[in-house]
């Protein structure tokens, strides 16, 4: 029996020895690959070549992902690393080109209409002046005869004019001009009456919401005769 036990132990020792030797061989092979890969990358970086990959199967190197203009140089550098037996280039996959889009069967969209041009302040003032003239012609600002007092109808007309003036451009200013016909008092009396009437209308417009600093008044007396010499004109400037 002791002799039989020795024969059993001898094969078992051989098996253990073989397993250990194989493990050392595998470990040594992995160390070699890591060492070669590390030294190859160092050599490539020293040459200023980056961006690719170097892998090893034993001592055989495979290169991939390097710039096309430097791939030959990279191959030669790795081949000259001590311990490298062979260098293979792995081709990068060619980029796929998407198929061309089918021609559109729909008709082209009509061109967009031109953007409307904005009116200038001069145009706005001219348009407003026309509105004021028409409003005063349809409903004039009237006064008590031979006085500067505005009648009730004249006050209503002035209020409508104030609403029009509120639409004026911010830089617009307004002049209230008073006109009267010739009277027994002569030119001086006519001038004073026209001034008083223009001033009273300006005060009404201010009361109806027009800023004071945008309104002036002026009397012209009987110097500018017209079809209606007892009139008030409002000019946009």
Automatic annotation (TrEMBL):
<dbReference type="InterPro" id="IPR036737">
    <property type="entry name" value="OmpA-like_sf"/>
</dbReference>
<dbReference type="InterPro" id="IPR006665">
    <property type="entry name" value="OmpA-like"/>
</dbReference>
<feature type="compositionally biased region" description="Pro residues">
    <location>
        <begin position="95"/>
        <end position="116"/>
    </location>
</feature>
<feature type="compositionally biased region" description="Basic and acidic residues">
    <location>
        <begin position="227"/>
        <end position="237"/>
    </location>
</feature>
<protein>
    <submittedName>
        <fullName>Outer membrane protein OmpA</fullName>
    </submittedName>
</protein>
<dbReference type="GO" id="GO:0016020">
    <property type="term" value="C:membrane"/>
</dbReference>
<feature type="region of interest" description="Disordered">
    <location>
        <begin position="85"/>
        <end position="124"/>
    </location>
</feature>
<keyword id="KW-0472">Membrane</keyword>
<feature type="domain" description="OmpA-like">
    <location>
        <begin position="130"/>
        <end position="237"/>
    </location>
</feature>
<dbReference type="Pfam" id="PF00691">
    <property type="entry name" value="OmpA"/>
</dbReference>
<dbReference type="InterPro" id="IPR050330">
    <property type="entry name" value="Bact_OuterMem_StrucFunc"/>
</dbReference>
<feature type="region of interest" description="Disordered">
    <location>
        <begin position="215"/>
        <end position="237"/>
    </location>
</feature>
């Amino acid at each position: 029996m002791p002799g039989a036990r020795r024969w059993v132990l001898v094969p078992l020792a051989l098996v253990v020895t073989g397993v250990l030797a194989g493990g050392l061989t595998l470990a040594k092979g992995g160390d070699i690959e890591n060492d070669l890969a590390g030294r190859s990358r160092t050599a490539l970086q020293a040459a200023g070549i980056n961006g690719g990959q170097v892998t090893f199967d034993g001592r055989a190197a495979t290169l991939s992902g390097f710039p096309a203009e430097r791939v030959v140089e990279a191959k030669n550098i790795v081949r000259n690393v001590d311990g490298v037996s062979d260098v293979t280039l792995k081709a990068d996959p060619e980029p796929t080109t998407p198929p061309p889009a089918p021609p559109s069967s729909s008709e082209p969209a009509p061109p967009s209409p031109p953007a409307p041009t904005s009116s200038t302040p001069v145009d706005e003032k001219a348009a407003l002046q026309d509105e004021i003239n028409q409003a005063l012609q349809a409903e004039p600002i009237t006064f008590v005869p031979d006085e500067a007092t505005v009648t009730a109808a004249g006050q209503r007309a002035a209020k409508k004019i104030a609403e029009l003036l509120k639409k004026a451009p911010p830089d617009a200013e307004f002049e209230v001009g008073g006109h009267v016909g010739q009277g027994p008092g002569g030119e001086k009396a006519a001038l004073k009456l026209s001034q008083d009437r223009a001033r009273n209308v300006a005060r009404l417009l201010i009361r109806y919401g027009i800023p004071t600093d945008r309104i002036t008044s002026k009397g012209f007396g009987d110097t500018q005769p017209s079809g209606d010499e007892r009139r008030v004109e409002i000019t946009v400037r």
